């Protein structure tokens, strides 16, 4: 079996003298590893494309007896040189991709994940100033929304009232719904201000690449962080602890 696809490279390593393994995100197959035999020396087959954070058009075959993916040739589509010049941006992208690797398994949602990653890389690549330290939280929320855990942030799930007409709304984490103040019970929900709701609504309708330098005020940061942490722990089963993504 053979296929040709636009992918994003996460990591590249060398084994033996001239061979590489490549960890990449495919829009149809998810995050997979392939092998580029002779990849370190073949300029004809992999002309400068085997580097992390490149978008590459790969021609891939299944290898002998379908035991592994063999990368036959690659063409560089985007190298994101502006992003790679800045260690801060590279570190932040690495943080987001590690999170993606922790939660995204299998093929479902891979095209959406690919779009999200490409938009993020493009956003950082074109950013002249420093990235927002809050961006990884925004990325996590957008990823959860795109991986099947989207929320209606406009209407109360119970009475259908417009949430923005109230000062705040309650998010029932386990049910994955928002409720207006009249419909929230006594416990079991997180309170989000209308400003935080407006951010979530805006996030659902804009590309993630536009958020790379967005810095919210302190109370909005706290509110969005609490929501992201609780929502992602429950629905995606992971959490950030001491700079590591852990299963919980
Ligand atoms: Zn209601």
Automatic annotation (TrEMBL):
Keyword hit for DNA damage: yes
Record Pfam families: RecO_C, RecO_N
Domain DNA replication/recombination mediator RecO N-terminal: 1-80
Gene Ontology cellular component list: bacterial nucleoid
Keyword annotations from UniProtKB, A to Z: DNA damage, DNA recombination, DNA repair
InterPro entries: ARFGAP/RecO (IPR037278), DNA_rep/recomb_RecO_N (IPR022572), NA-bd_OB-fold (IPR012340), RecO (IPR003717), RecO_C (IPR042242)
Entry's Gene Ontology BP terms: DNA recombination; double-strand break repair
PANTHER family from the UniProt entry: DNA REPAIR PROTEIN RECO (PTHR33991)
Family: Belongs to the RecO family.
Protein name per the record: DNA repair protein RecO
Lineage: Bacteria, Pseudomonadati, Thermodesulfobacteriota, Desulfovibrionia, Desulfovibrionales
């Amino acid at each position: 079996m053979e296929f040709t696809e636009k992918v994003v490279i996460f990591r590249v390593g060398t084994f033996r003298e001239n061979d590489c393994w490549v960890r990449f995100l495919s829009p149809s197959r998810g995050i997979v590893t392939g092998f580029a035999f002779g990849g370190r020396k073949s300029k004809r087959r992999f002309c400068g494309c085997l580097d992390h954070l490149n978008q590459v058009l790969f021609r891939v075959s299944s290898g002998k007896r379908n035991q592994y993916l063999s990368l036959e040739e690659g063409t560089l589509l985007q190298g994101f040189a502006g992003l790679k010049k800045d260690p801060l941006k590279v570190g932040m992208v690495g943080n987001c991709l590690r999170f993606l690797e922790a939660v995204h398994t299998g093929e479902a949602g891979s095209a959406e994940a690919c779009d999200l990653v490409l938009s993020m890389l493009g956003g950082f690549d074109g950013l002249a100033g420093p990235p927002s330290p809050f961006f990884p939280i925004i990325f996590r929320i957008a990823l959860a929304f795109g991986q099947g855990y989207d929320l209606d942030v406009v209407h109360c799930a119970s009475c259908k009232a417009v949430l923005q007409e109230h000062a705040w709304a309650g998010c029932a984490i386990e049910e994955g719904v928002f409720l207006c103040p009249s419909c929230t019970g006594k416990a079991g929900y997180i309170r989000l201000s209308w400003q935080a709701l407006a951010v979530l609504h805006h996030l659902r309708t804009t590309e993630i690449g536009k958020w790379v330098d967005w810095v919210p005020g302190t109370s909005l940061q706290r509110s969005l962080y609490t929501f992201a942490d609780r929502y992602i722990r429950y629905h995606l089963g992971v959490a950030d602890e001491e700079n590591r993504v852990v299963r919980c």
